[in-house]
Design goal:
The chain has 333 residues and is α+β, with helices and mostly antiparallel strands. It folds into 2 domains: 3-85, Winged helix-like DNA-binding domain superfamily/Winged helix DNA-binding domain (Arc Repressor Mutant, subunit A, Orthogonal Bundle); 123-303, Endonuclease Chain A (Endonuclease, Chain A). 50% of the residues lie in helices and 15% in strands. The chain has 13 helices and 11 strands. It has helices at 3-12, 25-36, 42-49, 53-66, 84-116, 132-145, 165-172, 191-201, 246-260, 271-276, 286-302, 304-319, 329-332; strands at 40-41, 69-72, 78-81, 126-130, 149-154, 176-182, 204-208, 215-218, 222-226, 238-242, 263-264. The strands form 2 sheets. It has an 8-stranded mixed β-sheet with strand order 4-10-9-8-5-6-7-11, sandwiched between helices. The chain has a 3-stranded antiparallel β-sheet with strand order 1-3-2. β8 (215-218) and β9 (222-226) form a beta hairpin. α2 crosses α3, α2 packs across α4 (53-66) and α3 crosses α4.
């Protein structure tokens, strides 16, 4: 390979990429030199890498132990690189096995943690978090650590941006994301379009004027609840992280109650939703009227059987007395 070609390759693939599979920087440099110059001696490799022979010998020993090169018999010994797809692939598989064993160990350690803290102080069941940065960090950990479901109460003021980029990653992982948006959140310009993007990605969204505060519950095992309801988002912002306990069960039940009484969101390009929400950001005065209208339509869709029985009773009342019961199809029912 020409000098210009090697420089272009180094720009595309800088040194240090193999460190994630446990290959040090010097070892990777020698391995790459050997790929371009197979059959080199140890002195030649040391000269090309601009290191001493002793350091090159240590690196070659590690590479041989990792399966990235082998020695040809003879004096002086010459080194031959292993095919990258085979050798590096084996290192990747080994690292994946190590990560999987670490994950299984973490699951077992969680059980030990729960047994050890079951009768400890309440601070290990309910953690107090102070500061905007700390709360944001715990919220990101809660979102990225969710495996099955996330339940969200969305209500301003927001600490960060209401356009949550981590939600798309969670939805892509298959997390069932349920969000109840407050009436105040719809007053933010462009919020309906943001909710529409989330729904297109798989979010299950509803609207309610009864959202008391922000809330996030992940996998029924952790809940993040702010203590300041209408705070300005200053450094004095505080929140609590609730671990499995009776309070977490109460928060989960409260979310389910508000969820059942909320209205499903029907957004763009739905014609019905454009009639229900005439503008992109509904005014506070129009929210109760829109809520009642959508609530009536939602209740009507949930009770088709009762409406049918009522209609038959009304028809029967109109028919009674005018025809013999044996003639009237409505009265025979």
């Amino acid at each position: 390979m020409s000098i210009k070609g090697r420089r272009d390759a180094d720009d595309r693939d800088p040194l240090g990429r193999l460190s994630v599979v446990g290959v040090p920087l010097l070892d990777e440099q020698l391995y790459r030199e050997l790929l371009n110059n197979p059959g080199s001696t140890l002195a030649e490799l040391a000269a090309r890498a601009d290191v001493g022979v002793a350091r090159a010998r240590q690196a070659a020993t590690r590479l041989e132990r990792s399966g990235l090169l082998s020695r040809r018999p003879g004096t002086p010994a010459r080194y031959v690189p292993a095919p990258p797809d085979v050798a590096v692939g084996a290192l990747i598989a080994q690292r994946q096995d190590e990560l999987e064993r670490a994950r299984l160990l973490a699951d077992r350690l969680v059980e030990d943690f729960r047994r050890g803290t079951r009768y400890e102080h309440t601070s290990q069941v309910i953690e107090l978090i102070s500061g905007v940065d700390a709360i944001n960090q715990r919220a990101v950990q809660l979102t990225r650590g969710a495996e099955r479901d996330l339940m969200i109460f969305d209500k301003p003021p927001y600490i960060g941006s209401p356009d949550n980029p981590d939600e798309f990653d969670a939805l892509a992982r298959g997390v069932h994301w349920r969000a109840v948006y407050s009436s105040e959140s719809l007053q933010i310009p462009g919020q309906l379009a943001t909710i529409a993007r989330f729904r297109d990605a798989g979010e299950d969204a509803r609207l309610s004027p009864l959202v008391p505060t922000k809330l996030a519950i992940a996998d029924h095992r952790l809940a993040l609840l702010p203590l300041t309801i209408d705070g300005p988002g200053t450094d004095e912002e505080t929140a609590i992280l609730v671990h499995p306990c009776s309070m977490l069960s109460m928060l989960t039940m409260h979310f389910e109650t508000v969820w059942d009484r909320s209205i499903p969101v029907h957004l763009y390009p739905s014609v019905a939703s454009r009639r229900a929400f005439s503008s992109a950001s509904p005014s506070p005065a129009s929210w109760p009227r829109q809520t009642r209208a959508l609530s009536r339509s939602s209740r009507a869709r949930r009770r088709p059987a009762s409406r049918g029985r009522s209609a038959r009773r009304s028809q029967a009342r109109r028919c009674t007395g005018r025809w013999p019961s044996s003639w009237c199809r409505c009265c025979r029912r």
